[in-house]
Write a structure and sequence with these properties.
The structure is a homodimer.
Chain A lengths: L4 H15 L8 H8 L3 H13 L3 E4 L5 E4 L8 H9 L6 H4 L11 H18 L3 H12 L6
Antiparallel strand pairs in A: 1-2
Chain B binds a DNA duplex through helix 3.
Chain lengths: 144, 144
DNA sequence: TAATATACTACTAATATCGTAGGAATTGGG
DNA sequence: CCCAATTCCTACGATATTAGTAGTATATTA
């Protein structure tokens, strides 16, 4: 159960956009440099995020990317699902008919519990929350 | 973030052994048939579980496998870790020095939160719990 | 000694991941 | 109108992992 770089990079890129709200479009090049990600790879990730409706693009010179919605309206769970796929994919938790024993399968119950725990965390956090947390981390009050 | 069959099969095999406690060794062949897993593949999984100390093997005729500890003393988390590896592997959650920005990286905080949520679920369940749940599921009281 | 098990090692097909590469299309500014 | 900057699109490839299959060696019981 390891996270793909796709998801990790994608969420970090979204965070960059969230921090840039109100300052116009942000370029791939900039995001890639700040987050230490290959421009070309990030290019593909943004395509996914764009077609899922999380970001908007402005083409041409002075173009770039902006969030399609306000940061407080985008939950981590949404983006996670888009990039990583359904949380904890075990076929039988999604499709009751996948296995004949599903009804009294305790293993299935466990995976469902795990799944719900992960979703609960990711659903409770928006990109605005992450922006706020970043500010707190950078605040002088928190320096040692 | 999908579970490998390795983990799923392994946990189901362990559950079979937990249900068989006190009845002597259980053969690979039997477990494989009941759980619909390839005998040869299960063979390899049991090798892993054995070297991790979760099961003991009895070789030769009338041999098989038994749990190495009482079912109430084996948490799902232990077996999960053994088969699937660390929960939610993101290098930076395990190794603070992996990334220079780790200290104030909010993405890292998120993955830590997710990780802890999963571990909390898996740590709260033992194989004895699963045996009990199975009995409840099979009890006539629960039939419709 | 025969039958039944586990133990061990090697191989393989399929798939996914994590990119790299190259060029086409669009836009803003001089 | 032209050039530079930027997104858009498609194809390719190297690497690793997964989910097995296969064959043989070793141990134990009866």
């Amino acid at each position: 159960m390891r996270l793909s770089t796709r998801t990790r990079y994608g969420i970090r890129a979204m965070l960059e956009l969230a921090e840039n709200v109100g300052r116009g479009p942000l370029q791939l090049r900039i995001i890639a440099r700040r987050q230490d990600i290959s421009v070309k790879y990030l290019d593909q990730l943004m395509t996914i995020l764009k077609s899922a409706g999380f970001v908007r693009s402005i083409r041409g010179s002075k173009g770039g990317y902006v969030l399609a919605r306000a940061p407080e309206q985008i939950k981590l769970n949404d983006v996670f699902n888009c990039l990583e796929g359904p949380v904890v994919t075990v076929e039988c938790t999604e499709n009751e008919n996948y296995c004949a024993r599903a009804a009294d399968c305790v293993a299935r119950q466990v995976w469902t519990q795990v799944q719900e725990a992960v979703m609960a965390v990711l659903q409770s956090i928006t990109f605005q929350d992450l922006v706020d947390r970043t500010k707190n981390n950078k605040s002088p009050d928190y320096q040692i």
